[in-house]
Amino acid sequence: MSVLIVGSTALDSIKTPKTENPRLLGGSASHAGVAASFFGPVKLVGVVGDDFPKRYLQLYQRHGIDLAGLQRLAGKTFHWSGEYEVNMNNRRTLLTELGVFETFTPKLPATYQTTPFVLLANIAPALQHHVLDQMRRPRFVAADTMDLWLKVALPDLLKLLKRLDAFVLNDSEAQQLTGEDNVLPALKKIHQLGPKYVVIKQGSHGSILSGPRGLFLCPAYPLRKVVDPTGAGDSFVGGMMGYLAAAKGPIDDHIRRAMVYGSVVASFCCEGFGLLRTTKTTRPQIDRRVKELEKLTKF
Amino acid sequence: MSVLIVGSTALDSIKTPKTENPRLLGGSASHAGVAASFFGPVKLVGVVGDDFPKRYLQLYQRHGIDLAGLQRLAGKTFHWSGEYEVNMNNRRTLLTELGVFETFTPKLPATYQTTPFVLLANIAPALQHHVLDQMRRPRFVAADTMDLWLKVALPDLLKLLKRLDAFVLNDSEAQQLTGEDNVLPALKKIHQLGPKYVVIKQGSHGSILSGPRGLFLCPAYPLRKVVDPTGAGDSFVGGMMGYLAAAKGPIDDHIRRAMVYGSVVASFCCEGFGLLRTTKTTRPQIDRRVKELEKLTKF
Q1: Nearest to A211 by CA among A266, A142, A155
Q2: Residue B256 C-alpha, separation from nearest chain A C-alpha, in angstroms
Q3: So what's the pLDDT on residue B88?
Q4: Rounded CA gap, A207 and A216, in Å?
Q5: Which of A182, A216, A219 sits opposite B217 (nearest CB)?
């Protein structure tokens, strides 16, 4: 089955002490879309300006991503620019130009409206609602978010939580949302806000799922070197949803393995700037790291 | 088989905004000794003053801990006092009185010298050497340490590393020792310093082993509430060594499960001040959490 993914489609300029990396393909929908594409068909919803390089459209297409829902408007593509410090640990934003995103209203093609799996990747909750409003009885809806929306659009986000099957957020966002710094009470409070499945991401320490079959501690694939973690969270949730949509049978039978697959796609994402490493990844490489993780966690 | 454990035997006074907890039994050897005692016989090496409460000697004895190597000297027992802030996350030291530890020279009873498993729990590396000097061909030697010894006794510690089978330290100490903030290159560098097995502890995120059979990602048991993490690292390594000493066959066949057992004993340690919760723990409770961890990590 296919996954519909809405989120940001952006150009990211990432500076380091050694390299420049201008105008890489970025955005939550790009990372999640490419990640999901390893498992099955993806329908993208987003917006780009007339400066959006043709090679990035071709990149989406090479990954079999349906672009019928990608609007191309006059104006500039959403552009984010940031800089890493010498130790590559701290990143600071230099510039954020919303461009065509400022007036974006997603309008779903008819062919999109019956997609069974829906991923509302990180984007303003109002837009996530707007996409969901146009869907006809999707089977499974997941959403990601970021600290910004907890600050500036909390009422919208709280309304969204009641419409979700799964909510994915990172540990600092979970603390921001619930006031709990311990992950277990935080998970409990988020369930009370609506979602049946809650996933808290913990960066290089993996992630934790709470669902009808209890907790699952999902490992992160250990990396020798992290080049750029931008988009890792989006890759995680994209890979997870792609795997889930491709699996047959109940969600509960597959969601743990889906998270491990998401975790592995995220590991590839971290090994290059932007999508440079992810787009070179193959399904056998992904399967190999999943097998490795099985061995690394067995006792 | 039994484990010999040398380390600090202390009185810990732990203040929180709500409670006082004066003169609890503490110290690395106390935590590691009680943790190891769930699996088999333990021989303790340490020193206490004439103010050491009789009830703590009885506590050791209730856990079947051999006290022939525990010196009782005139003077004060090592006393540490600390205070937690309101959120229970930050702890600051109020006072450290070395007492009888200032002049302590461990002298092993003859019955101790052939113990097959040796745990050099956190204590000055010179004392760890001194204990090891008195041992006759132990089968497996592990050591723990702390940031202080990396600062003030690095040459001694580096010499010790060449005498160990296993070295256990936490992530910030590994970074301090190797200059690597990524755990994989840090593990590699520590192997080059001597030990065949290296374990890096990551607090509530579990721990990672590097050994002849590759890496193992050991989970931490997720807790609803952490009351006091003091001694958790000592409990981890104590439980691990206790389990290993009780297991039959090659180390490599058991070390992963040994770490999981250590991790579970550490989880009980965190649920009470000092040793208050650990000493109430039973082997069936430990086995139950290990089983739970199996379920929580399976995919």
Answers
A1: A142
A2: 6
A3: 64
A4: 8
A5: A219
Per-residue DSSP letters for A31-67? HHHHHHHTTS-EEEEEEE-TTS-HHHHHHHHHTTEEE
- Residues in B closer than 8 angstroms to A254, CB to CB, are none
Q: Which residues of B touch A226 (CB under 8 A)?
A: 182
Classify B244 as helix, strand or coil. Answer: helix
**B126-154, pLDDT tens digit by residue?**
999 999 999 999 999 999 999 999 999 99
Assessment of whether the complete model's pTM goes beyond 0.90: yes
Contacts of A298 in chain B (CB under 8 A): 256
The residue whose two tokens read 């837009």 is A127
The rounded distance, in Å, linking the Cα atoms of A43 and A66 is 5
Of residues B224, B259, B295, nearest to A182 (C-beta): B224
- Dump the DSSP string for chain A: --EEEE---EEEEEE-SS---TTEEESHHHHHHHHHHTTS-EEEEEEE-TTS-HHHHHHHHHTTEEEEEEEE-SSPPEEEEEEE-TTS--EEEEEEE-GGGGG------GGGTT-SEEEE-SS-HHHHHHHHHT-SS-SEEEEE--HHHHHH-HHHHHHHHTT-SEEEEEHHHHHHHHS-SSHHHHHHHHHHTS-SEEEEE-GGG-EEEEETTEEEEEPPPP-S--S--TTHHHHHHHHHHHHHHHS-S-HHHHHHHHHHHHHHHHHHHHTSSTTTTGGG--HHHHHHHHHHHHHHH--
Average of per-residue pLDDT across A211-230: 96
Q: Taking CB atoms and an 8 Å limit, are B226 and A182 in contact across chains?
A: yes
* The pLDDT value given to residue B89: 65
Residues of chain A in contact with residue B259, where contact means CB-CB under 8 angstroms, are 299
Among A184, A218, A226, select the one facing B222 at the smallest CB separation. A184
Q: Give the residue carrying structure tokens 């970025």.
A: A26
- Decide if A32 contacts A121 (C-beta within 8 A): yes
| CB within 8 Å: B256 and A298 | yes
Q: Which two tokens stand for residue A91?
A: 């990143």
CB atoms inside a 10 Å sphere around CB B179: 10
The pair phi, psi for residue A241, each rounded to 5°, is -70, -35
> For residue A216, which residues of chain B lie inside 8 Å, CB to CB?
296-297, 299
Tokens of A254: 């597959």
Taking an 8 Å cut-off on Cβ atoms, the answer to whether B181 and A89 are in contact is yes
Whether ipTM > 0.95 holds is: no
Q: What 3-state class would DSSP assign to B42?
A: strand
A20, pLDDT greater than 90: no
CB contact under 8 A, A222 and B183: yes
Contacts of A287 (CB under 8 A, 6+ apart): none
Write the single-letter amino acid at A72. Answer: R
The total number of residues shown for chain A amounts to 299
Instruction: Tell me the C-alpha to C-alpha distance, in Å, between residue A100 and each of A51, A58, A63, A229.
Output: 11, 20, 24, 25
Angle subtended at Cα A47 by Cα A41 and Cα A49, rounded to the nearest 5 degrees: 130
For A217, the closest of B219, B225, B256 (CB atoms) is B219
Q: What DSSP element (H or E) covers B239?
A: helix B232-246
